[in-house]
Amino acid sequence: MDSSAGPHGASGPNSSSLPGNGGPISLSSSLPINSSSALNSSPPHSGSSGLTPGAHAIAAAQPLAAQPKVDRSELRKAKAISEAIDKALRADKERLQKERSAKLLILGPSETGKTTVLKQLKLLYGRKGLDVERQTYRRVVHLNAMKAIQALSYGLQKCNIPLEKPENIVHLETVMRLETTLKRYSITSIGFTNPAIPRKITDAKAETDMFLDMVPAIKALWADTGIQECYRVGTNINLQDSAQYFLDSVDRISEPDYVPTDDDILQARVRTLAVSEHYFNIDSVLYKIYDVGGQKSLRKYWAPYFDDVDGIIFMAALSSFDQCCEEDERMNRMKECVVLFNSIANHKLFADTAFILFMNKIDVFQRKLDAGSLVKSHFSEYDGPNDYATASAFLHSRFLQQCKDTAKQIYTHFTHATMQNTK
Ligand SMILES: Nc1nc2c(ncn2[C@@H]2O[C@H](COP(=O)(O)OP(=O)(O)OP(=O)(O)O)[C@@H](O)[C@H]2O)c(=O)[nH]1
Ligand SMILES: [Mg+2]
């Protein structure tokens, strides 16, 4: 996972350093978190008399034989003192826990790579959890491959590109006939359920059988130069970024004993439908990390998590400069992302929150520039050359300009979130 960083420093906005090649992202070094004291350092309490733990301590200090007849006012006083001690102990424990933990939110529009960053963290710090989910990803991979070829098939019509081999029309029809079935098999968040959001019914065996039936059609279509042309020029055909990766791997992923690799998991696309909570212990600090669904209709679920946030990772896809929003075809994706960044960066609850901005999908961005997609066609105010360094700096500045507090630190990383880290 490439990254480069630079604070949007106290000297004013836009002072971030520009894209380059940095090391792997270290959350603990990116955030101002104190890690000097221990978690759960208060001793456990026990007892069944109804007295508070503090009262137990006081009672234990009184020699039994010397206790006079019960004086109710003295008892009340002792109880009040014990409660005060307990309150102080609790506050101290909470303070210690807070010092040793950090709450992070990963925010941003849909498909910017929020869940992918989380998967990277799991690969680095919670591999066990990912291994438990590995088999589930088999279905996701199969669905992703089917959806990719389907999007390209529809894209062919949208872009008015003919098939190279007319005999492939039969495969095109097979793929398109499966549209409603595929919709039914959409997978929602892996490993997390929010009772407020119904999960779609899924059937792993049916999905795999359907995929295996489709393999000949997928292979024939993907080899057709008409489909390849559609892949190259179709920017608004709703194609996931992992399309090529999975379509190139059809032989491997259709093996009977196929088990998804780490790369497959990073590339697999599962739309997040709710807010999911994850825990990571990194350098003795407990990170509570929240991954949210980025679709517009799901942003109403974010607000309840806005209290006591230590840091925000805001994800933007650099490659989205020439795409429109899924929910509104008239809206440019990156412009919509900038508007969202404005509302988050200037939110009153985040006045003292550390901010990390990930300008993600640099690989796709580079590929688009190489293929001739012009930044100027979507941002008319841009008059620089259509190269990576200048164009990415320009797009980055669109974000930094949004911060009303010019002293706010915004640490930027230019990332390729599907690239594996070597720790
Ligand atoms: N090529 C490339 N693909 C990426 C990159 N980052 C993420 N992806 C892919 O983009 C797709 C979407 O990524 P997700 O992490 O699911 O996006 P998200 O922001 O969680 O989306 P929602 O859950 O809908 O909010 C996945 O197929 C990822 O593998 C990247 O840097 N480069
Ligand atoms: Mg997600």
UniProtKB/TrEMBL annotation:
Residues 1-54 are annotated as: Disordered. The keyword Lipoprotein applies. Pfam families: G-alpha. Mg(2+) binds at residues 115, 272. GO terms for molecular function: G protein-coupled receptor binding; G-protein beta/gamma-subunit complex binding; GTP binding; GTPase activity; metal ion binding. PANTHER family: GTP-BINDING PROTEIN ALPHA SUBUNIT, GUANINE NUCLEOTIDE-BINDING PROTEIN SUBUNIT ALPHA HOMOLOG. This is Guanine nucleotide-binding protein subunit alpha.
